[in-house]
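Quick one:
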Amino acid sequence: MQSGEPLARGRKNLVETVSDQLRRSILSGDLRPGDKLPSEAGLTQQYDVSRTVVREAIASLRADGLVEARHGVGVFVRTPPAQPALPFQSIEPSKISSIIEMLELRMGVETEAAGLAATRRSPAQEEAIWERYDDLSRLIASGQPTTAADFAFHLAIADAANNPRFREFLEMMGRPMIPRAQLEDSNPEPTPADYLKQLQAEHKQIAEAISVGDEEGARQAIRTHLKHGQERYRRLIRGS
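Output:
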């Protein structure tokens, strides 16, 4: 039994090599939908492998939906199946309902990040949170766009949780994470100053709770912050 194991592993590696090369040719367009693959004998000679290896490689491609066998005719390239959409690519930031969905998701993730930041932050990470807060204050005072700085503030909190997956998640969400970014794009009117001041007051509560190590207070502060955002956009839906 043991003497056959290296042979089995060797064949598996050859199958992967052949199937990977054919897969690359298909996905790159060198082999197009409707093209006929070389015969089994031709592939055997081309890759210098056994017929068994070729058959297993073709079976792998068939399982991936890249080729189809037509009895008595040969093996043909199929149109590659559509790739699943990347996460958050179906978001429609122009729709209020989509914005609310994002805020609800953020609440689940960022509440925990803020709580962890309160107990895990380093002095440098705490300083970074306050620096991002100050950046926002300066932009608000000068009437400049604030969405990028707002995003940076929330990323600083994610960093302070000392779990890199929080930052990765927020970055994957990307620009739609800050809902007023879309409103600023579609509406040349600046965001109302009183609204920005309210946001900044909420940011300050979050930063202060993290600074004093108040884990539950930090969670509650960011939960309140995101809850107010949901309420604002629900009012827009109702037209009030």
